Amino acid sequence: MKIAQINKIIQYKGGVETVMANIGKGFRDRGDQVLNLGFSVQGTEIPDSVSLGPDRKKIARFFRDASLVQDVVRRLDAFQPDVVLTHNVYHSFPHAQLAQALKARGGILVGVLHDYKCVCPSYGLHISGNVCESCVGKHFYKAVIRKCHKNSRVVSAILAADSYWNVRLNDAYAHYDILISPSQFLRDKCLELGFKHPIQVLCNPIDFEVEPNVNFEQRQDAVLFAASLDDSKGVHTVIELAKRNPDIIFYFAGKGPLEKMIISESIKYSNIKYLGYLCRDDIKKSMRNVKCFIIASIWHEVLGMVVLEAFSQNCAVIGAKSGGITELLEGGRGILFRPNDPLSANEALQKCFLLNKNEYIKMAEKANAALNGASLAGYCKRIENLFLHWKLTTRQKNG
Question: Cα 19–36–229 angle (5° rounding)?
Answer without folding.
Answer: 35
